[in-house]
Amino acid sequence: MVRAGGPILGSVQRIRLTVLALFAAAAIAPAALACPKGYSYAGLYSASRASGIAATISMLGAPAAYGESSHVAGWVGVGGPGLGPNGADEWLQVGLATFGSSAGGHLYYELERPGAPPQYQELASGIVPGIRVRVAVMELPYARNQWVVVSPTGVSGPFYLPRSHRAFAPVATAESYAETQRCNRYAYRFDGLQLARRDGTWQTMRRAQTLQDPGWRLRRNGAAFSATAA
Predict the structure, then answer these.
(1) What confidence category does residue 3 fall into, taking pLDDT thresholds of 50, 70 and 90?
(2) Distance between CA 67 and CA 184 in Å, rounded?
(3) pTM of the model
(4) Nearest to 71 by CA among 142, 122, 135
(5) What pLDDT is stored for residue 33 in this prediction?
(6) What is the Cα–Cα distance from 19 to 38, expressed in whole angstroms?
(7) Which is nearest to 183 in space by CA: 104, 101, 96, 70?
């Protein structure tokens, strides 16, 4: 989830409830096709709860987000809106994002804790297609409800997420938020998907559910997938 002068990125549970507008393009030329405003997603989410998730994320082509608050992203994370204590928002995620006012990819993490606004932290910028970035979020095996972000820039945290121990089914997803009906450009690949066990070791993410909204093409191959514009 990303906030950088614009809306935050959503969660799997909220994604499933999102109602997307249909493409309003039947009577116009293909080159002028419009896309639905708002959020759309394509990715995988774990079939069971886990203590973290890791993936290698890369951009397959140059991204573009049209509109100052528009963005595209690929991320892994846990939690989401309404999933914390007493229905509070609570999440932690890490990935690559591109905003309407920026060029290239930005490595970031975002933290949301109950009663506080989301905290967006940029870790690196200038990421171009073809660069593979290994990232993870995980709960510390020796400290319940304490989570860290792991990336090529190092370890961030720990962050306290109340009542998060074994509470979340992790997600790996690409996301597009469109401020206008001009279609954002995006293409992400996720490799080496893994889930964290309670003891801090990792296992290949084998059982997962598919998430695919209109406007996306998802190709899955074992513990890897690509998500691109349809």
Answers:
(1) low
(2) 9
(3) 0.85
(4) 122
(5) 53
(6) 10
(7) 70
